[in-house]
Write a structure and sequence with these properties.
alpha/beta; TIM Barrel; single chain; three-stranded parallel β-sheet
């Protein structure tokens, strides 16, 4: 029950960790290619669709330069399935003792309050996902948590966009931000991969 050393590496590979919901397997490789063309290598694929594990497996196999993680990991079984598919890390919306004890994948657990941060730290997790970032208090909440708990480092996710990402990234306790704006649903549906590459490059250039 500790932060795996790979998690800080993944969190500092780039300023934006895209949160991807892939509804159809044929979108997996074009999406990964579009994001990577824009300079994003660490990809979080949420386990919210039937093809999510297959998408992780496909990208992990065909695009070895990508660092693929599984999002919406809620149980140890989720982590085991994601690891078997080829995921390199897991991201969860919250943290339970059962999930904290899983050892299938390096875990980036979610927290939303100072009490949850304290519990995560007690269990050895120093690198955390702040979720849902904006509804949970946004920049002000993270700044407030950073005072008494400076050892905790965050990837805020939930309500992050191009317009507010810089405010989060300016905080000392924020290493990267998670967001879906670099891969909007309409662009994916339309197969507008060039737009996703443009948005990715814009984010990397603006925040790096």
């Amino acid at each position: 029950m500790t932060t795996h050393p790979d998690i800080p590496k993944f969190m500092t590979t780039g300023p934006v960790l895209p949160v991807m919901v892939i509804p159809s397997l044929d979108q997996a490789l074009p999406l990964a290619d579009a994001l990577m063309a824009g300079g994003i290598r660490v990809l979080e694929i949420t386990l919210r669709t039937d093809c999510a594990l297959d998408a992780i497996a496909l990208i992990a196999k065909e695009r070895p330069d990508a660092i693929v993680g599984a999002g919406t990991v809620i149980t140890p079984k989720d982590a085991e399935k994601a690891a078997k598919a080829g995921a390199k890390f897991a991201v969860s919306p919250g943290l339970t003792k059962t999930l904290a004890k899983q050892d299938a994948l390096p875990l980036l657990p979610g927290v939303a309050t100072s009490s949850e941060v304290m519990r995560a730290l007690e269990w050895g997790f120093t690198h955390l996902k702040f979720f849902p970032a904006v509804p949970a208090g946004g920049v002000g909440a993270l700044k407030g948590i950073g005072g008494p708990l400076p050892q905790a480092k965050f990837c805020p996710t939930g309500g992050i966009s191009l317009s507010n990402a810089a405010d989060f990234l300016a905080l000392d306790n924020v290493l990267c931000v998670g967001g879906s704006w670099v891969a909007p649903e309409k662009a994916m549906k339309d197969g507008n991969w060039a737009e996703i590459s443009r948005l990715s490059a814009e984010a990397v250039q603006k925040f790096s």
